[in-house]
Structure formats: C-alpha cells, structure tokens
Amino acid sequence: MKKIREFLEVFGQSSGKWIVLASMVGVLVGIGAIVFDRLGRVVVRFAMAQFTGYAPMEAAGEEAVMMPADAVFSPWMLVLVMTLGGLVSGTIVYWFAPEAEGSGADAVIDAFHNRRGKMRARIPLVKTIASAITLGTGGSGGREGPISQIGAGLGSVLADRLKLSPRDRRILMAAGMGAGVGAIFRAPLAGAVFAAEILYSDSDMEADVIVPSATASIVAYSLFTQALPIEFRYMPLFGDDLHHTLTSPLELLPYAFLAIAVTIVGVIYVKLFSGTRRRFLELPLWPHIKPAIGAVMAGLVGIGLFRMVGNNMHALGVLGTGYGTLQLALTNAAELGIPMLLIIVFAKIVTTALTIGSGGSGGVFGPSMVIGGCLGAAIGLGFQAMFPSVVTQPEAYAVVGTAGFFAGVARAPISTIIMVRALTGDFGLLVPTMLVTTLSFVMCSRWRLYHWQVPTRMDSKAHRGDFIVDVLEGLKVGDVFDPDRKVLLIPEATTLDEIVHCLADNQQHYFPVVDKQKRIVGIFSDDDVRTYLYNDSIWRLAVANDVMTTDLVSVTPEDDLNTALKRFTSLNLEELPVIDIDEPGKLLGMLRRKETIAAYNRRLVEHKQTAEDA
Fold first, then answer.
1. Average pLDDT over the chain, rounded to whole?
2. Does the reported pTM lie above 0.85?
3. Could you give the dihedral angle defined by the CA atoms of residues 342, 345, 351 and 352, in that order, rounded to the nearest 10 degrees?
4. How far is CA 30 from CA 40, 65, 147, 359, 366, in A?
5. Residues 515-518: contacts with CB within 8 Å, 24+ apart?
C-alpha cells in the first residue's frame, strides 16, 4: 500500500490518479458482484427450490435456476423458508453491521453527505450474505441497493487503506456504488450516471464522480460478464427482442396519462414504504427478528394472492425480484391481463414495504421496475382497447412505465432513462420515455424513496465548505476594499508619546508604519500600544519602530477573498494592508474582515436570487 500511495502522489489530482484508483475499485467490485450474484443463486437453488418446489421466473437475460427433479410446489413451505431467511438475514445484520439493513443505497447516500465517506470494512461482506439470503429465500427486493452498498463499502475501504483524504474517499465510494450497479445490471454507463445523480433530489449531479465511476463501471462490468454463461454474457437483462417505436405524436397523450398514473402510484409506494419502516422501528422487539416478521407477512400476502387468483403462478411475482413477471409484461402483457397486472402493482408495493421496511436486506429499484412496468402494461392494454389505431404496442408502455416510476420516486431521471434502455435493449422509445420521466420527476418533487438525499450540492455537508470557497474565490480584494477611505500612516520615527495622543483622537485600530519613501515597513494595533500605557517613562524614548511588527501579513488587489480570509484567520486579524502588486511596499488601503464577510453574504444572496429566478 505504501508503494501505491507513493505512486499516486506523483499524479496529484490529475486524471491519471483517478484512472488508477477507479480501476482498482472496479476490480474489487467486479469480484464482489460475481460473489453476490452466485451466492444468491445458490440460496435460491438449495433453500427455495429444494424445499418449496418453486423458483422465481428469471428475466430473459438471466440463467434459470435448476429445479430438483421431484419438485412439488408447497405454498406454506415457501412462507416458512421466507421466515427463516428473514430471521437469519436479520440476525447476521444486527449482530455484525446494523447499518447494512434495508435498501443499502440510502446508507451510501448518508455516508457520502454526513460521514465523510467512511464505511466499516465488514459491511461489504455482511451485505453480500444478508442480501443473498433475503432475496434468495423470496424476499421482495432488488439487487441495486445491496450491490450499491457492497461497491461503496469496497471503495471506502480501499480509500482508507491508501490513507486518502475525505474528498477522495467520497469519490471512490461513489465510484464503487456506480461500478456495482453497472456490473450487476450490465449497464456501465447507467451505473456511472446513477452514482452521480442519486445523491441529490433536485436537478443536480456530483460531477467529480462521473469519470472515476465510469472507469470503475467498465472494469467491474468486464469482469462480471466473463463469469456469465456465454449466451447471456452481452445480452440485455430483459433480452434483445424488445423493439418498439412511437407510432404517432397522438400517442404522447396516453403517455402523459401514464406519467400521472406512475406519480400517483409512486406517492403511494413512498408513503407505504416510509410508514411501514416507521412502524417496524417502533415495534418493542429485538431488531434481529423484525425482518422475519416482515418476511412472514410478505409471504402470506403472496400466497393469499396466489390462492385468490386460482393458483396462478404469475401472482408469485410479488415475491423475490419479480423480474420474470416484468419480463412477461414487457413481451406479452395480454397473457397477464389488466386485473392481474394491477393486482401485482399494489401487492408488490405491500410485499416490498414489508420486506425492506422491516429491516430486510434488499434494494428498492428492482421492485420499482416491476411496479412501474406492470402499471405501464395495464395502461397500455387499456388504451389499446379504447384506441386500437393509436396504441398498437401496449408493451411499450411497460418499458416507459419502468423508467418513469423509478425516475420520480428516486429523483434520478437521467440515469433511469439510460438504465432502462440498457436493461431492455429498446432504443425506439426515447421521446415518450423522456416525457414520462420528466413529468413524473417534476410531479414527485415532494416525495422520494431515499431519505438521505439532499436537494443540491449547496445543501450537502460534503460541499458546504466547497461552496464557501467557490464564492470567496470569485471575489477579488480589489472589488471589496475602499481605496478612498482615509488611513492614518505612522512614520517609523514617531515617538510613543505622539502615538498615544493619535490613538486618543482616532478610531482606527491598525496603524501602518511607513519609511521616508512612504513605503510600509511594519504595522501595529491599538492593543500593541496599550501594553505601554502604564510605563510613561519610555513614552519619549520608544518610537513606532519599537512597537510595530515587521512580520507583515498583507494582500494585493488581485488576491481572492478566500486567500484574504485565510490570512485573517492565521493570526486572528481584523484588518490587512493592501499592497500594490507592481510596487511592493506601496500601501493602497486596508481591507477589513467585516468587509470580506459582507461581500460573501451579498454574493450568497445573489446566488439564491438567481436560483429562485431560474
């Protein structure tokens, strides 16, 4: 590690440094993603499939789980396996790393803004095991949250080992998050943008992390795909057979209705998720067993729905990731039908809230895709029945709904558009996708899934100091100090007696001392003179040269206010001499600390006013 640190010091803050560091993160996260994916499949095969006779349907681009030859589906055994999975997962999390509970992505956002990017080294391991158990035993959740925290944890640990600064640690942590998402979803560009966008709830991005995150994503994606069967290696998650187009501008009206629908359902999702989480936190029980309670309740909802619709296996899409059900909505929505699609939408909201809200380890992006996709498919089928000549491809609404739903509740429209395009391989719906994601993003502005998101960089503790520096560096000393304000200059031969009488008749606090050519040679304050007040025997002997300090701390008109403020604070001064940059020693005036702060406050008000006008 020492040699690596020495090597990185050569690069400083250059792009070369970030290419090296991000590549290292990408290797770690790529391996972590492979372990997480494989472990999840092992749990599905030997816990769920073996004992319940059921394995969730997979997306077209995923390897199906091998079922036992004598498998017979047992609904109540499924509930039991889910309950045990929740108990084991909860015990592991709360014993070893309580911060690994829940979705994971929100914990990463919290660490970025409020914890200097620090995450404990054990978190990636705990999150990997707990999430594989939760999802592998049928818990309703996604993979993006766990892999976000796994990747971010690996980035943070690497930064700690290399003794990097808090700023660099945050960047590596975000790069790890983006690399994890880019690898597990086989969407490196989406992962890079996701890491920059998900940190904020308004239209803002963490621009510093895009290049490192893109680099890490490429490396992690390249490693992860090599571990997949060759037939799935470069296939989009939901297959490469989705090819839809916008058939008519009139179709934008149904898409606008879809935006309203995903907003309404999104608000329900956020409120139910937040409310369920709050209720579980208030339960007077050991936190270790709360995920088991959530799991048994989610299992009962799934099995109850299964019985209610006549033992239709499609109903079980409300458990697990639900990608198989979404695959059907994207390719043949009519097979599910509007009633089943809407039942899945609202039941999936409930099972996800119970699984993740109780402390289970899983993400919220996967369920959001299922909810948005099934809602979009139902609306597409409805409009096709009413306007068959306008709406000819109801499955296209499932694609757009998948993007629009998460864009609104997660406050991440750009990365979501890129993500859904990468997951579906469907690039013919860019215009309606942009319309729906933009509308849902605007209409959902008061509701968000991720509690720790802040509106903009200005609101982040990570950047509060950066913003102050940016504002101060945009102002020059020459713009602030008043060169016409009269400053009393003290010749260096002036006696202390004369200086004392000057203080009595003057409100000035700092007195520049000048030589015969009027060049500043030192400075003293009224406090420096007060030390001599009780020893009047030396008043006529001591001169200004004896009182002043020659260790001048000064500024020039070309210095920025950030430089000036640092010099004010270095010796706790209230005024600084302003020296001509072309004629050293020539005093142009005095800069006061309060003038510097007032200039900063004025510029801050201007920034806020500009933002409000925009």
1. 89
2. no
3. 180
4. 15, 22, 10, 26, 20
5. 515/491, 516/491, 517/585, 518/489, 518/586, 518/587
